[in-house]
Each structure stands twice: as C-alpha cells, then as structure tokens.
C-alpha cells in the first residue's frame, strides 16, 4: 500500500564487501563433525503446496549435510497461520525461524517484538542485500532495521486466455487502460457467463490502478491516508466502472472462488494474479490455455502490487546464531535451489537468468513486472480496517449503492481515524 524509499541501501550499517557468491561462507560449513549433539532449529511456514513444502524440506536437508553442528527441521503450520503463531509466542514456544507474510503481518510481528533485528548478524557475516529486488526487501525493513530476508515474491500481472482473445478478434493483450476496457467489452458474453475480467473487488486488486493514475493509499510513513486526491479517485473509478459497465464480474457470479479459477474454467478472459496461479492452472486446468502479460499502463505508469515473503528469527529462538546460519543458507545457495525446483519467483536479481526461467518462459513477463512493483502492506493494527471496511465500501461501489467518490471518502475518513487511534 505504499512505496517505501530505496535509500535503505545507503543507511544500513551492513558491510557489503567480501560477499563472494550466493553460497555465502560459513564457519559451520567448514567445521568438522563432533560427538556433540547438534543444535535443533525449527523452521516454520504456512502449509503450502506439496511442491513448496518439498522444496523447503530439500533445502534444509542440504543445509544439514554441510552444517554438522546444526539440525534444521521444517514444520509447516496448517490452519490460521498468524493466529497459531501468536498463540505460540504467548506460550513462549514459537519456532526459531518463521516466514513473514506480506500485508499487515510483517509490521505487526515487528512492532510486537515477535521477530528480532538481523542487522548485527548481517554485519558480522558481511551479508549484502544489494542483490534483492527493492520490492522484496523494503517491506521487511523499518527505518534502518532489517527484520526479514526475502524468500519469494510475485507482483500481479495480467493473465489472459488467448483462445478467447482470438475468438473476439483481439490480436494480443491490452497495453493501456483504454485497450483494457475496450477488450473487456469485446470479451464479455453475459449470456454464457463469460466476462472480460473476473476478480474479487478487493483493495489488493484496485490499489494498483490508484498507483497507475499517480495516486497512493497512504503516505510513505503509513501515518496518513491519501485517498482523497483526484488521482486516487481516477484509478479507483476505473476499476469500479469495469463492474458497473458489466464487463467485470466477481468470481462467485461464475461459480468460482478466485480469478485464477475463473480463468481455468473458461469464464474469465482476463484476471489479475501473481505467479502462484501458474502451477495451479497447469495442474488443475491443463486443457485451458493461458498467457501472461505485464499490466496495462495507466495515465502515469503500470505499477503493480508485489507480494513478498521473508525468513525471520523469532524472539523465542534459543540459538539465534545458528538460526541465522540457516537463514543465510536459505536466502543464499538455497534461493537458487528454490528457483531450480519450481518455487515462486526469485527475490534476487542475479537469478533471473537461471536456466529454469529460460526453459519456463511463462515467468518472463512476471519477472519484467518486478522492477515496477510496490509491496502490499499496511501498518500494525490496521487488520480490521482492511478485512472489513475496505472490502465493504468497495463492494458497495461495485453494486452501485454508493459512487466511487463516496466510497473513497468513507475509506479516507475511517482509515485516518484508525491510524489516529493506533489501529483501534
């Protein structure tokens, strides 16, 4: 929800000299096995796909072979990830390492002291963050403090059905807002319940149109709402009017639960999704052809929202130095392994030319979008506003019960009140 400054590179007290490669030197990797029982480090994340879980298991297995003094194990968490973790923090029994998600999770855990700063570990290891995409690393930096190192990311891109495009006489994906709207009209057949765009009308989808019009959601410090501007209204109105004109639909209207599923069902000609939709579509709807393009450009730019995750050390870690060794590996040599085995998009600029991406060109336009993406996040205590007010007001606008201007006015007022009350 904000575009953080990239000046962190100049202010972090982290030495960038002496880093040799993504392997990162490690005292533990050079040590000899002893009879001393290795330190156990528990690594946790939400329970993802079998592919994701398998990659993490293999990453840690390789780490354990070269670090005899440490035994890292993976514990996927099923259910409400954040709620379960908060319960474990209260009990003083949280994992040593967790995955921090985008949205409000990272600011919340940072503000509550659930995860520890990594600056001192990075300085001692001469660990460089220059190779990370700004959109991937910025969200986990508060002021000069680094709380997490990126694991994966994905900006939103335009998924489309080339078969439906050809049937409608459209030669390729839209490159501008005007073309996007015109194509959506041509691609919509309401009698067949096929729509130009199928998307849940939520802030992580319309915010990018606000940015593309030159507006923003909040100021960089996340202390003031900025939805009361002509640019914000222009971007929000463009998104809302796609529904009001009948060329966009909610997933439930076509029997789907999200845009990617609607695309796979052949009910959506376009959807705004990230890299997570690629394996889903390939595995669940192998007969449905799809392609990916950069987002159409708005009046100012074609900025996208980015959804990065990061590895962090928790306050409950009994052996933080060993936990750091694990994170150093996962974000170094392990990151290349993540790419090679089909994880989400890399967070490192140096890895975008790996053979995997050359042999999987479907990722190319998502990678192109990464340099022009803003991490999706909001401040600590803002969850209720995001989960209720934002969605409710947007839906009222989509249904024509309020105008886009009235909806933004309510979002501005209630958002500012929430900020002033410290998220209460």
Brief account:
This protein is an alpha/beta fold. The chain has 19 helices and 14 strands. The longest helix is centred in the first third of the chain and has 17 residues.
Descriptive overview:
The relative contact order is 0.18. Helix content is 41%, strand content 14%. It is of the alpha/beta class and 424 residues long. Strand 1 (39-46), helix 3 (50-66) and strand 2 (70-77) form a beta-alpha-beta unit. The model is unreliable at 1-34 (pLDDT under 50). The radius of gyration is 22 Å and the shape is globular. It folds into two domains: 8-153 and 308-366, Periplasmic binding protein-like II (D-Maltodextrin-Binding Protein, domain 2); 157-305 and 381-420, Periplasmic binding protein-like II (D-Maltodextrin-Binding Protein, domain 2, 3-Layer(aba) Sandwich). The strands form four sheets. A five-stranded mixed β-sheet has the order 2-1-3-13-6, sandwiched between helices.
